[in-house]
Amino acid sequence: MTTARTPKSVLISAAAVPVLVIGQFSMLAIVPVALVLAGALRNTALRSLRPWAALLAVVYAIPLVLWAIGPDRAPSLSKDMAPVFVPLISVAAVAVVVALVARSRRSPAVVKG
């Protein structure tokens, strides 16, 4: 039996990113961002999700890198992140969730017996 289902780990991780970023836990958001990117790259069924996952990773990586190389770093990524990145990261994560939901509605589970 083969099913074309959306991996729950990718869906939950994508939904957790805006919650963590808006809740001022931006550094912890690296885990779900990495899970979304790895899930999209490893699962061939999620090929259409790869651009959205890459966009999320890039939008998240920009403030992370700026925080890491900055001369006067704040004690946390959330305090150092420019306010424009919070909605950008949130919108990119919601785009991943929407793409996953649209993908699952477009291609129902295929069962081969």
Number of helices: 5
Given as residue ranges, the uncertain stretches (5+ residues, pLDDT < 50) are none
Instruction: Work out the oligomeric state of the chains in this entry.
Output: single chain
Structural class by secondary-structure content = mainly alpha
Q: How would you sum up the major sheet?
A: none
Name the beta content range. under 5%
Distance, first to last CA: 6 Å
> What is the overall shape?
elongated
Rg (CA only): 16 Å
Whole-number average pLDDT? 87
Pattern of helices and strands: HHHHH
- Can you count the beta strands? 0
Helicity level: 55-70%
Give your account of this protein's structure.
The chain has 113 residues and is mainly alpha-helical. The chain has helices at 8-22, 30-42, 50-69, 77-80, 85-106. Helices cover 65% and strands 0% of the residues. The longest helix is centred in the last third of the chain and has 22 residues, at 85-106. It is elongated, with a radius of gyration of 16 Å.
Set down the secondary structure blueprint.
Blueprint: H1 8-22, H2 30-42, H3 50-69, H4 77-80, H5 85-106
Helix pairs in contact: 1-2, 1-5, 2-3, 3-5
Question: Characteristics of this structure?
Answer:
about 110 residues, mainly alpha
